[in-house]
Amino acid sequence: MMVPIRCMTCGKPVGHLWERYCKQVGRGANPKKVLDSLGVDRYCCRSLFLTQVDMVEKIGKFKK
Q1: Alpha-carbon distance 20 to 29, whole Å?
Q2: 4-13, pLDDT tens digit by residue?
Q3: How far apart are CA 45 and CA 7, in angstroms?
Q4: How much is the pTM?
Q5: Which of 22, 20, 7 minimizes the C-alpha distance to 53?
Q6: Domain 15-60 belongs to what topology?
Q7: How far apart are CA 10 and CA 43, in angstroms?
């Protein structure tokens, strides 16, 4: 769905980094290097980015 504003484990704000992460990974950058450059160091926050599936466009098709 949508990326959380804060990490669910540690509470660090991460929502503002999602668009930059998607743009850079979409261009073919290595996700590890992108997360390092964005300052996402904790494994809980990193797993949030790596496992997130953006489904807003797919779900939007079923809107009334």
Answers
A1: 11
A2: 899 999 999 9
A3: 6
A4: 0.81
A5: 22
A6: Arc Repressor Mutant, subunit A (1.10.10)
A7: 10
